[in-house]
């Protein structure tokens, strides 16, 4: 690359698709780039290296990635020195890797989720030897000590485990991220201690199923809680089949653990849950939900639902609607089933026409609106402790943050007397409940 020969700094553009695990990987990719001396740009047009970290969970995410790679053809023609890198879950699937390799000849480096740590070496080879590299080999070790370039000074995502052993029949994750493996509590606690001493106040523990953390998830939370300092802890994702009542007891007694439980149920029909290989029944799920609501008053519970799973009947769908009405989730992330090649569900008969799935989806949103509507009224009149994250997207000169219940709180910051409150805890008196957020004003007290 000419710039490199001239001693100028190269700039990287990193774009991430998909879930928080992918964003966490991108922070490591950026950390390795920074160690290699790269600068960063938010503008792909001026980048020397463009990296797409991809997601395999839904078909539309894949199409988006292909669209983005396709749009680089002119830039690459105009600047043959440009390096294009595609990595992440999507390329770990053989049919995708083959398509990328054969159709997008200008992609210089393709690598999967297992060889993230080899990125500097691979990129150096591509730059110096002008060699095209494809590496989707598997490696089931936990690699520690990769540098991390975090986007925020006050919050940090902490992976506690990688991969997944659950093989839900619709999901590609176990195939693209490999079998479940946990980091050790010592390493996780050491990392959090360091970050607390640097002023980080918000930790999100990441795993596809944090409840099956090999060394005991409830124990890990208790050890993190015991670290000195003022910070909050949340986690995702919880699998209902592994969530124990002991864990809820730990949350109930804690000062720092979030009172938000994201617990994906996926369907209200036991028949569909079995076809999905989820490992629990609706009744078992509801018993956890009730226990959590009794033990942790005010807890916020959210979920995921898939509509139009292969073989789902109107009766199954009605069971999902009934569940939404009785469970009264604070909110739900809803999806129409997306076929993933290589999974069990992709081989199941799927007679429901796409138009019917769309109708069901719309019907479900209406039921959800009604069942979750007013859920946030319970916070009106209360004072919530909120970590201020910056200006609200509402454009009304409000600030925004999240409460311990994971609720978005938009607030008028004027009572904070102009003090810089971003990245600090503030107390906000809630005056109004909206559909997806609550509104309030900051109280005079601003903690540390
Ligand atoms: S628990 Fe199921 S849905 Fe979640 S990542 Fe594992 S296989 Fe996929």
- Strand arrangement in the largest pleated sheet: 2-1-3-4-5-6
Task: Supply Rg.
Answer: 23 Å
Number of helices: 14
* Biggest sheet character: 6 strands, parallel
- What small-molecule ligands were found? iron/sulfur cluster
Structural class: alpha/beta
pLDDT averaged over residues: 93
User: Helical amount among residues, as a percent range?
Assistant: 25-40%
> Which blocks of ≥5 consecutive residues have pLDDT under 50?
none
For the record, give the distance between the C-alpha atoms at the N and C termini, rounded to a whole number: 48 Å
- Total E-strand runs: 19
Percent strand:
15-25%
Q: Which outline best applies?
A: globular
Keywords:
single chain, 448 residues, alpha/beta, 6-stranded parallel beta sheet, 14 helices, 19 strands, binds iron/sulfur cluster
Notes on the protein architecture:
- This protein starts with a helix and ends with a strand.
- The protein has helices spanning 2-5, 20-35, 59-70, 73-78, 94-103, 119-129, 173-177, 185-197, 217-225, 245-253, 270-275, 282-295, 314-327, 354-372, and strands at residues 11-16, 39-40, 49-54, 83-88, 109-111, 133-135, 155-159, 161-162, 181-182, 202-206, 232-236, 260-262, 300-307, 331-336, 383-391, 399-403, 408-412, 425-433, 437-447.
- The strands form five sheets. The protein has a six-stranded parallel beta sheet, with helices on both faces. The chain has a five-stranded mixed barrel with strand order 15-16-17-19-18. Strands 7-10-11 form a three-stranded parallel beta sheet.
- The protein is of the alpha/beta class and 448 residues long.
- 33% of the residues lie in helices and 23% in strands.
- Bound molecules: iron/sulfur cluster.
- Iron/sulfur cluster binds at residues 164, 166-168, 171, 173-174, 208-209, 239.
């Amino acid at each position: 690359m000419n710039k490199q020969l001239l001693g100028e700094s190269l700039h990287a553009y990193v774009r991430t698709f998909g879930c928080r695990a992918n964003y966490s990987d991108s922070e490591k990719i950026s950390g390795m780039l920074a160690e290699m001396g790269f600068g960063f740009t938010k503008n792909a047009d001026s980048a020397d290296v463009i990296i797409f970290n991809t997601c395999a969970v839904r078909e539309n995410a894949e199409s988006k990635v292909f669209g983005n790679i396709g749009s680089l053809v002119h830039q690459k023609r105009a600047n043959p020195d440009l390096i294009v890198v595609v990595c992440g879950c999507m390329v770990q699937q053989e049919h995708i890797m083959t398509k990328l390799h054969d159709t997008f000849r200008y992609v210089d480096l393709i690598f999967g989720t297992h060889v993230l740590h080899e990125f500097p070496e691979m990129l150096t080879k591509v730059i110096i030897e002008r060699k095209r590299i494809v590496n989707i080999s598997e490696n089931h070790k936990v690699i520690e000590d990769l540098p991390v370039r975090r986007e925020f000074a006050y919050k940090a995502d902490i992976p506690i485990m990688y991969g997944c052993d659950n093989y839900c029949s619709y999901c590609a994750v176990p195939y693209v991220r490999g079998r479940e493996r946990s980091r050790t509590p010592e390493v996780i606690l050491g990392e959090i201690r360091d970050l607390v001493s640097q002023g980080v106040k918000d930790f999100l523990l990441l795993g596809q199923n944090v409840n099956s953390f090999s060394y005991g998830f409830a124990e890990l939370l208790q050890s993190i809680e015991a670290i000195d300092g003022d910070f909050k802890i949340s986690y995702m994702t919880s699998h209902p089949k592994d969530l124990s009542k002991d864990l809820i007891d730990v949350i109930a007694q804690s000062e720092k653990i979030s009172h938000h439980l994201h617990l994906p149920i996926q369907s209200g029909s036991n028949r569909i849950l079995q076809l999905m290989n989820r490992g629990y029944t609706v009744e078992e799920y509801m018993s956890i939900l009730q226990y959590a609501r009794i033990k942790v008053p005010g807890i916020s519970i959210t979920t995921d639902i898939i509509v139009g799973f292969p073989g789902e009947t109107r009766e199954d769908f009605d069971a999902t609607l009934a569940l939404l009405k009785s469970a009264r989730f604070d909110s739900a992330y809803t999806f129409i089933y997306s076929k993933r090649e290589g999974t069990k569900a992709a081989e199941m008969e799927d007679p429901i026409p796409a138009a019917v799935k769309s109708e069901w989806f719309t019907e479900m949103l209406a039921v959800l609106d009604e069942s979750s509507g007013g859920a946030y009224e319970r916070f009106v009149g209360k004072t919530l402790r909120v970590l201020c994250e910056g200006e609200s997207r509402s454009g009304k000169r409000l600030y925004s943050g999240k409460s311990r219940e994971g609720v978005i709180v938009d607030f008028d910051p004027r009572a904070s007397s102009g003090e810089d409150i971003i990245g600090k805890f503030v107390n906000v008196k809630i005056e109004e409940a909206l559909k997806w957020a609550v509104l309030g004003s900051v109280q005079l007290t601003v903690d540390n």
